[in-house]
Specification:
This protein has 691 residues and is of the alpha+beta class. The protein has 3 domains: 5-94 and 126-223; 303-468, GAF domain (Beta-Lactamase, 2-Layer Sandwich), CATH 3.30.450.40; 543-687, Histidine kinase-like ATPase, C-terminal domain (Heat Shock Protein 90), CATH 3.30.565.10. It contains 21 helices and 12 strands. It has a 5-stranded antiparallel sheet with strand order 2-1-5-4-3, sandwiched between helices. A 5-stranded mixed sheet has the order 7-9-10-12-11, covered by helices on one side. A hairpin with a 3-residue loop joins β11 (669-675) and β12. α3 (62-83) packs antiparallel against α4, α4 runs parallel beside α8 (226-255) and α18 crosses α19.
Length: 691
């Protein structure tokens, strides 16, 4: 019997992948990536072995051969997807579309597999051979595109580890594309291309083996996502389930008599409805994830994904001003920790100003009162010493594992209490979280406890930040009150000085009508000023009311308020009207402070002058005196600092500082020149507006 080239080609391919599978199984099954390659290699070996039987005239149905080819393609797509777990910086398009591409591939393969098995069992053709060729070409193209994306985005270090593997995968994906495209073009499968396919796949096997050898020196870093396994398992199970339902419906229609077709439709509808209910059930989904974690992974968690999810969840508790929303954060922490172990309810305690641990929030628990936990309690002492999670199931069975500590009754009387998690960093315990039993039973190990502890520390930092922001806000409020009080005291002192001057001159000028009129005006102004100060006390954060004011009017009012002082200030300003956008009372207070300081520093026989000059959109106000003057050191280092004064205990040192801050607020400035024993000149620069 003559052995055909097809037999030799596929025999070589089958042998190569059998040996490759044995090599991987004996040397490289410690990592998830190795197991993925083993499955793909074994699937290729089985597929090629079945094709060898075809060369010996063994009648293997087409649907079986094609089903095995689809399984082989699915296995290599699993390897391809695992390559996306290499540490690289993905492009935006890859990052956004990775999930959707994966789902589309899995759906396509599952549908093709379901249709193939259905056609083989029922001998009922659902799709034509032409459509099958198009789908095969599509699979090859998608494989090459994803392989190109992996290579383009991989780092130099990662490329060296996957170089030979990508060459191997590119070779058989390219060959499949060429073979099926040729068949699509000529409406006939090329015998030569089909017979050579086994040898081409055999040539790829040494490259894969070389990759595994190099992986001992330089890790590939492959990773299969839990979500990918979960969705793949769900789709495969759903596909098999639908296949069974379809087969059942087929036989019902055959043996159901006159009711067969109606019963078939009803049976399929009920089957699909049951599938939707099962897939949407959180209990079923939770149990599937537990099963996958126990049986497919060395580590239960994808730490990167869990860290990103917890960070995003905590970050999303910020409000529009980027401050942590205090009311939402505690509940968010409970939910984040609960999601790690499948729990849906719990409570959180935080330390208050008195050191007690009070309830900060709860999730899906009864509205009952929770007592505060004393800082000297057994529970708090245990957490400060051990920083470890307490499993209440273990505690109930053997309290000695936890030093026979006393657990608060508020926690134990909850429905199915489960875990108590400390919230602390570096021996600083700031809170604790109680979680209740999860939906699906979960056996905890060191990995669960480590992840809970790490995420709880992250949550602790956010909770501490929230408390710090609250304390900072309160401190800022006190600071604002103290600052406002200092300014108010200064303004009150100015008012008292004006009233004292009136009282001092009243006895001498009480019969002078002009003095009486001036006293009435001054008193009326003082009343307005006091009312303004009362408004500031009641609402210190109230914004200043800006309006268009005439500088000449403001200067004249300041002059009239001080014209009875000794020495009497002189006022000169140009006839041209200068308009300013400012709060009139504030501007008058600023100028009045400077004038009053000049009066305090100048003897009665001295001179004080107020003059103005306009230039380039500004008006300059010069307040000059012949007083004692100030040193250069005082001007540079102390003059514009609050609570610094040359008046000793009688001065607050507020006026000049307040004046400068307000002028800056409206776009102006203040400067000063002075010389000891000669005098001082303050220059106020104020922006003007058009008439």
């Amino acid at each position: 019997m003559e052995i055909s080239f097809l037999t030799i080609s596929h025999s070589v391919g089958a042998t190569a992948y059998i040996l490759l599978s044995i090599y991987i199984a004996n040397r490289h099954l410690r990592r998830n990536a190795d197991r993925t390659l083993f499955i793909a290699s074994l699937a290729s070996a089985i597929w090629l072995s079945v094709l060898v039987l075809q060369g010996f005239d063994v009648n293997v149905p087409f649907y079986i051969r094609y089903t095995l080819e689809l399984i082989r393609n699915t296995a290599w797509f699993g390897v391809l997807y695992s390559l996306l777990g290499i540490q690289f910086t993905p492009t935006r398009s890859l990052g956004k579309n990775r999930f959707y591409i994966t789902v589309c591939i899995l759906i396509l393969l599952a549908l093709m597999l379901t249709v193939t098995i259905y056609q083989g069992i029922t001998n009922h053709q659902l799709i034509s051979g032409y459509t099958t060729l198009i789908l095969q070409v599509s699979i090859s193209v998608v494989g090459l595109l994803l392989l190109e994306q992996v290579w383009q985005n991989a780092s130099t270090y990662s490329r060296s580890g996957i170089k030979y593997l990508t060459i191997a995968m590119a070779s058989f994906f390219s060959y499949d594309f060429f073979m099926y495209s040729d068949a699509l073009l000529f409406q006939e499968m090329s015998t030569a291309l089909w017979d050579t396919r086994g040898a081409v796949n055999a040539l790829a096997a040494p490259f894969i083996a070389l990759t595994m050898v190099n992986s001992n020196k330089q890790p590939i870093g492959m990773h299969v996502s839990r979500q990918m396994i979960f969705h793949s398992t769900t789709l495969i199970v759903a596909g098999v389930y639908l296949l069974i339902i379809s087969a059942g419906g087929y036989y019902i229609s055959i043996f159901g008599g006159s009711w067969g077709e109606a019963l078939r439709v009803l049976f399929i509808f009920v089957g699909i409805l049951v599938l939707v209910v099962l897939v949407s059930s959180p209990v079923i989904r939770a149990r599937i994830m537990v099963f996958i974690s126990k049986n497919f992974f060395d580590y239960k968690y994808d730490y990167r994904d869990e860290w990103i999810k917890s960070t995003d969840a905590l970050t999303n508790t910020h409000n529009k001003n980027n401050n942590i929303e205090k009311s939402e954060l505690p509940s968010q922490i409970i939910q984040i920790l609960g999601d790690l172990v499948g729990s849906r309810s719990g409570a959180i305690w935080g330390q208050d100003e008195d050191g007690q641990f009070v309830l900060r929030g709860k999730l899906s628990l009864d509205d009952q009162k929770f007592d505060a936990i004393e800082p000297s309690s057994d529970l708090i002492t245990y957490f400060k010493q051990n920083e470890w999670v307490i499993n209440l199931d273990e505690y109930m069975l053997d309290p000695t594992k936890y030093d026979l500590i006393e657990i608060p009754d508020d926690m134990l009387k909850q429905e199915q209490p489960w875990l108590i998690i400390p919230l602390g960093m570096s021996d600083n315990l700031i809170g604790l979280v109680l979680l209740c039993e999860p939906i699906a039973s979960l056996d905890l190990n060191w990995e669960n406890y480590d992840l809970l502890r790490i995420v709880s520390q992250q949550a602790c930092s956010y909770l501490e930040q929230s408390d710090s922001q609250e304390r900072l806000g309160a401190a800022r409020q006190f600071e604002a009150v103290n600052k406002t009080s200092a300014f108010l005291v200064h303004d009150i002192k100015t008012i008292i000085a004006q009233l004292s001057l009136l009282v001092k001159n009243a006895e001498r000028h009480k019969t002078n009508p002009e003095f009486i009129d001036d006293m009435v005006r001054t008193t009326s102004h003082t009343v307005e000023k006091m009312e303004h100060l009362l408004q500031q006390i009641h609402n210190p954060s109230q914004e200043d009311t800006s309006e268009t004011v005439e500088l000449g009017v403001v200067l004249l009012e300041v002059y009239k308020a001080h014209k009875n002082a000794s020495p009497t200030p002189s006022l000169e300003y140009p006839e041209e009207i200068a308009l300013i956008q400012a709060d009139k009372d504030q501007l008058k207070s600023v100028i009045g402070h400077i004038v009053q300081n000049a009066l305090d520093a100048t003897p009665k026989e001295g001179d004080i002058s107020i003059t103005t000059k306009q230039a380039s959109g500004f008006v300059f106000i010069f307040i000059q005196d012949s007083g004692c003057g100030m040193s250069e050191d005082f001007i540079n280092n102390l003059l514009f600092k609050p609570f610094e004064s040359t008046k000793g205990l009688t001065g607050m040192g507020i006026g000049v500082y307040q004046s400068r801050e307000y002028l800056r607020k409206i776009g102006g400035s203040i400067s000063v020149t002075s010389q000891l024993g000669i005098g001082t000149c303050f220059t106020l620069k104020v922006p003007t507006i058009g008439k």
